[in-house]
Amino acid sequence: MNKGVLKALFVAILVILLGVYFSNISMYLVFSLVIAAVLRPLTNRISNLYLLGQPVPRVVAILVSFGCVITVVTMLVFLFIPLFRTQFELLQELNVNYLYEQMQKPAGYIERILIKFNLIANEPGYLLQLIKSNLLNTLSGIDLQGFVNQFISTTSSLLISILAISFITFFLLLENGLLRRNLINFVPNPYFELSVATVHKIERLLSNYLIGLLVQMSSIFSLASIGLLLANIEYAMSIAVFAAVANLIPYAGPILGATFGILVGLATGNFSEANDIYFLVVKILGVFAVVQLCDNIFLQPMIFSKSVKAHPLEIFVVIFAGAKLAGVMGMIFAIPVYTIFRVSFKEFYKGYKDYRIFKIDKI
């Protein structure tokens, strides 16, 4: 085999092993590459502007791009503040008797059905008493100190991750392709043009995929917020934001979004009878059913099939393989990673088949 091929394989294996060993740094780098890919067009456009006859410095353009991201994130956080404040006030007033009173009607209705069909042989009121005792045991078993410690630890880790990703993203935007050019310089001359074409194709497909995801999230947010507002659901915008972000998780995302919507609706609604609860659940499920139908028919085929040039069955298998390997994060990053390997294999196979660039060294 050609020495260049062996060298390329050795470098690839070494990079994969280092990436697995330093998994945290690899995750930071992956997130930074994605964010840099999203922000690069905006940064380039700003840096091409002229201010007082001088081009805008690239550092300023990067800071403005970061400012746009911070502004969007801040606006999304402010959408959830009223919801969290309401739930915090409810928790402050929370007691077992209040929960017991709220559950009396639906629990009594369920109990009567179970007794009617001889599914339980207990006297009326047994199910309510069981719920009350379980609530007492659950509330008494809550470890508030452990929860606070876990919250502080998670917040510290999240802050470190945000700082690391921001630092790496800043320099990826500042060098503007220098890292890619330096890596390509290591490619032997016979494979140089093929490598450049492969990298260009991967960047284009991933860019299309990221843009498609942004379109999908925006569409889901718009459809869900409009539907929930028409259904007169409280905190419709907050639920729609959560649903749009959760939809990044293939297949499980819509279920998480609908579940969150139902929980928020139950926690913030005022119900005079059990039928009101059922009607609320039906309204929320109806909205998310319409949203999911639009997503499956129009959005997903446009994003997954057209942007990454892959068959829907391929996408299905790849997503579940990613879930098997790395859980939720594997499902989210399955398609981009698969696109990289798929395009690389196809381009190099094309080079081998059509151009015969892989040659066996003659002794």
Q: What labels describe this entry?
A:
363 residues; mainly alpha; elongated; 2 strands; single chain; 1% strand; two-stranded antiparallel ribbon; 12 helices
Short description:
This protein has 363 residues and is an all-alpha fold. 83% of the residues lie in helices and 1% in strands.
Mind explaining what this structure looks like?
With 363 residues, this protein is mainly alpha-helical. Helices cover 83% and strands 1% of the residues. It has twelve helices and two strands; from the N terminus they run ααββαααααααααα. The protein has a two-stranded antiparallel ribbon with strand order 1-2. 17% of the residues are buried.
**What spatial order of strands do you see in the largest sheet?**
1-2
Q: Tell me, what's the shape?
A: elongated
**Major β-sheet profile:** 2 strands, antiparallel
The proportion of residues in beta strands is under 5%
The N- and C-terminal alpha carbons lie at a distance of: 11 Å
Which stretches of 5+ consecutive residues score pLDDT under 50? 358-363
Helix count, per DSSP? 12
> Given the helix and strand composition, which structural class is it?
mainly alpha
How many runs of DSSP E, i.e. beta strands?
A: 2
Helix-strand pattern: HHEEHHHHHHHHHH
